[in-house]
Model the fold of this input.
Amino acid sequence: MRSGFICTGLEAFSASGSKARAKIHSMTSARKPVIVRKFTRDWVAGYAGVVFGQNAAELEILDLTGKVLRMGWDQVKWVCYVRDLPGSDSANPERLLHKKFAIRPRAAGVWLRMTLNDGEEIEGLAGNDRSLLDGAGLMLTPPDTRSNTQRIYVPRLAIQALEVVGLIGAARRRPPQAEEQPELFPGESDTA
Done:
């Protein structure tokens, strides 16, 4: 078996012919690198599931030492899905230099501005779907997608105020206007 895969649950046969259950998950797709910022200003780097238990009572991540950490959602300011994990001495590991859009976003979605419980303001682009109403938090695309942070998950418990700045839709194509067909023989009537 290749390294980087975990087996648990898919039907397979052993050398003796008996059935064994194994399920294959790629480690790279099961967990993504994240930086969890707490309201105490400290942060934790590690790996979280692609869709972690958003309705769970706490966030569970695997830190860089391999230990499973659990934090209550009331402690979490945001969870940033990042490209690479920083060293332990970085002051701004998320590298969120721009927390507001300088100009109107071009991608489709709902442009949100939120004030967090510690008074910090952040903007992002959320999907125009049911996730705005359901779940324990909001998944946002940050203003600067070229930074280390690709997506930000903000728990609803961390949001003090939420404002919809705009709805950016996909460009709509207008149907061509049907022009009236010119008459082939003006002045003639159909009655002959």
